Amino acid sequence: MTSTTGISDVNSNVARISISAGKKFTDPAKYGYAALTSLALKQLYGEDIGHFEFSEKLIQSIRRHLELPDQSDHVMLALFRGEGSQSEEVYVELVRSEEKAFSFFIVKDLIYHVVRGGKYDSRTRALILRVSKFLQIRPSSLIEMMEESAVKFLLEEKPPKPDDADTLKRQRNRKIKRYALVGLATIGGGTLLGLTGGLAAPLIGAGVGTVLGATAGATLGSAAGVAVIGSLFGVAGAGLSGFKMQKRVGDIEEFKFKSMRKPYSKCLHVSIAISGWLNDQLGETGFWTPWKNLKISDEQYCLMYESQYLLELGRSIDYLLSFAVSLCAQEALKMTVLAGLISAVAWPATLLTMASVLDNPWGVCCRRSAQIGRKLADVLLSRTHGNRPVTLIGLSLGARVVFYCLLELSQRKGSEGIVLDAIMLGAPVSGRASSWSKLARVVGGKIVNGYCSGDWLLKFLYRSTTGHYRIAGLEPVTWRHPRMSNVDLSSIVSGHLDYANKIDDILISLGYADEEVENYGLRRCLSSHGFKEHTEHVLCRSQSMDSFLSISKGGSKSKGIKNIEFKA
Length: 568
Fold this sequence. Notes:
By secondary structure, the protein is an alpha/beta fold. It is built from 23 helices and seven strands. The protein has helices at 7-11, 14-21, 27-45, 52-65, 72-80, 88-98, 102-115, 122-134, 140-155, 165-181, 191-195, 208-212, 222-233, 307-335, 349-352, 355-381, 397-410, 433-436, 456-461, 498-501, 503-510, 520-527, 537-548, and strands at 255-259, 270-274, 299-305, 390-395, 419-425, 447-451, 484-488. Strands 1-3-2-4-5-6-7 form a seven-stranded mixed sheet. Helix 3 (27-45) packs antiparallel against helix 4 (52-65), helix 3 (27-45) crosses helix 8 (122-134) and helix 16 crosses helix 17.
């Protein structure tokens, strides 16, 4: 919600800037800053040996950045290794006792410190998000705002005349001050001041160098600044939208990215959304329509792949559903006369006779989605998107693409630090811990498995293997890890068919969309465009299928019908 704090509130604090700008924070405050980063890294990667070297180097880099004594390295590394019982609350209080606004400066300074090297590692962004959580900095849009200001800070360097030292000094001072101003006092008429209750006011306009020291505020030269931006965003600067598959790779016939929104500015975080099968009503718009309300980053893409085969699968599912609805109606009628006529331990034989219609296109799409996942891994490793973290989210076969992309990355060198979060919804992949544990090395942030135990369609597709083969989209993954989350979506979706229709509710529950979105109604209208022709027949059909064939302890959800339970 936009703050009521206006421009006048910002102007009223201008007089305080000169006082705050002359103040340097003390060594205890810097020590608290460094300690919080060490504890955040411990929570994120304390159990991942593969990330130890990265974490220790980052801890030492931050210590040098803050100009703390060399001896403090031993203390910070001990905190990371868990040698001690101190919690983050101790250091949060230490930071706040120095200056309340220092909490915001820590996050802002961390961003600048890491991006000025030309690489924004996904593990570093995960660290920044965790430190922000420690300091109770909400919402995540504030982090994006600070990232944007860091990019502007790098972009606005102008080469001075070589013989004009005064010009160089003035430009340097203006640039440092502008970095502190961008995204704080000027965006949204003082929005930040409203969101933070004015806590950030003392740091608005305070230079990086005046707070932490001259070394921290050292700017980049013009040529260096251009090089850093080129490294962060890729030489071409077009991002993933500029990627085109030059030739057919293996069996892959279609593979391209489509931008889902026009970024307002250079974004330091990229997200890629991947859908499952398509239908004739929506066509290829089904690649991006479900993700209209996705809010992971300002730069978001959908992956368009193998539309011919995904459409064929969609038609097969549609055909099977038409048959299954008729079957369910017949079985329901029988149940009103003879309770228990249908066996609770087997799929109806009449339904099994139609399985071949679906099995072949499903098998083809499963094989191709795995290949697409490996191709996506190649694209990410090529750094077409630059040196920025990427969040991957997929549903159904799209989740399978994400999974195989991560598996491929786990087998390649130099694949760490690319992927931030990985969200897989209704994933038709193995749920074995041995497979999922490989993902920890290549995912810097959260690994999310969204499942529905009553997903009758996914259970039907895996009916011959579910007795001994765990499916991630049907149950929790047994791998236990601090960054692994199993989310039961059964309260939102009744089965596989509901994922696309209820993706907004799912995204809200996972924190990747707002409850109040300006175009929410429009997206709902768009997502149901093709179904209007049948007077909501298809939507009702999918709901009735999940109702009649739902695998749950309570049996059928259909009124008047009890204990109809189909098991593989």
